[in-house]
Amino acid sequence: MRMSAQTFFFKLLLPALLLCTGVVSAQTNVASYEPVRYNGEGIVYALPQTRIVVRAQLERTIHKPGPLHLYAQRYFGQEAGGEPSIRYRLGRVIAQSVGIPDFDQKYIVEFRAGTVADFVTLNKRGIIVGINADRQDLPSPCPDTLFRLPTIQPGIEKRPALPQEYTVAGTKGKQAEIAAAQVFRIRESLMDLLTGQAENMPKDGAAMQLMTQELKAQETALLELFYGKEEIAWEERSWTIEPKNDIKGQILFRFSPLRGVVDSDDLSGEPVSFSLRTTDKAPEMDEKEAAKYEKSLKGIVYNLPGAARITLEHNRNVLFDEELPVTQFGRRQALAPKMFRDRGPAIRVVFDENTGAIRQINENK
Questions:
Q1: Which stretch of DSSP H or E encloses residue 319?
Q2: pTM to 2 decimal places
Q3: How far lies 196's CA from each of 104, 192, 199, in Å?
Q4: How far is CA 60 from CA 8, 193, 266, in A?
Q5: Tens of pLDDT along 279-302?
Q6: Greatest CA separation for the chain
């Protein structure tokens, strides 16, 4: 039975609200989409176009000086920094092939009787991801980040155990003397505990571990009065490249331990370079050949992507070197219309939403 335009709209809208995908009843007569000629009785899908997304982990360490930093050398033999500082470390740097809708490659699946293509599934950007596919068969949405950034668990800040004299001391010098004496007492207690010479030894291993941890935590809290403390945070930066031709050693960004990621022309940082080398590309066609080939595509049109090797380097160190799919370097192909006729079993197809290539095809039993 032919589906009305109103029924089609309802079936498209409801799953989009519930599942963030467009799942609609559809038949398998496919044509290039032309908005002027499109009468609304079908579903329009797009094929993806590749963008290379480079993402970098960045660790930021903030040092806050301690209030007694001037006396660190006197009591512990090592100077402490007296000014706040920030330093950066470059973590993982990776690249991924990500698909965006190619608005020049849109097709309409018209509703016609006599086929068994019951469902065409789109993602929320209108890219085809499945035909006759169950929800669990479909790929998960592309994440906003390519890796999970390390998380720093905010613990309970340990306050140093200090005698009353520290609070009423009139000068920083006197406070430093009292705090240093407390550090040495804790170290002595820890040594007695570890050598078995403490007056009140713990009864078991668990109690021993607990006491040891407490003493070490107190020592750390006291030393922070002299040497300060550090706070670590992670962030992610990203860059997007549209692959058209080979790229050799293009400076994508620069990295400075003092400033983090800086612009590619900022000489305060060391360069991180990007290279793209085509490894698989479909033969080029002239305009007439391309038009003839496009006209020959009958059925559900999908991508056969090409490929390129992506290399990222920093100070002659290779950070990333992998081959990634690139749709612009490939060509389009079509699933034969006879695959979806009603005389045979339903065919299930799952597409890669980033490349438009077929990930899985089989009978839907």
A1: strand 317-335
A2: 0.74
A3: 78, 6, 9
A4: 52, 37, 19
A5: 999 888 888 887 888 888 888 899
A6: 95
